């Protein structure tokens, strides 16, 4: 995404502040790695503890083909990141989504701003028919967010990942555009 988009966001304190959604930059590596190391953010992902800044920088320097990476900023601070990757071949009509929000900004509209920007890109720029994602079955706030944007649960992946000393399930969710 080559443009910046601003929307108001409500902080937990109740104060409304503008959020900027923009394309990721290599200079975001330190901020994204710091967010990925937060316990709440990490608990919702497949990431291991101690996210390496250099690995994050390399990922930003060489993005996957057909991918769109964005971040959310509040007052110049990166508070969330998300990505959309278009598949290829006979699955070219599908995009896969991954996202996360800084622990201190969950429930403040950052996830909605990020997901809305990715859906706009998928629908209006890439003609993607199907968006897919996986989410831990116990991540009720994220499931609610995805349902708000039209995602439906299609299945349960039992013992999907090992997290915090135990195996946890995940849901596979999709949004189809007709």
Automatic annotation (TrEMBL):
InterPro entries documented for this protein: Acyl_CoA_acyltransferase, GNAT_dom
Lineage top rank: taxon: Bacteria
Gene Ontology MF term list: acyltransferase activity, transferring groups other than amino-acyl groups
Enzyme class name: transferase
Keywords: Acyltransferase, Transferase
EC number from the UniProt entry: 2.3.1.-
Signal sequence range: none
Domain N-acetyltransferase, residue spans: 19-174
The protein, known as: Putative acetyltransferase
Segments crossing the lipid bilayer: none
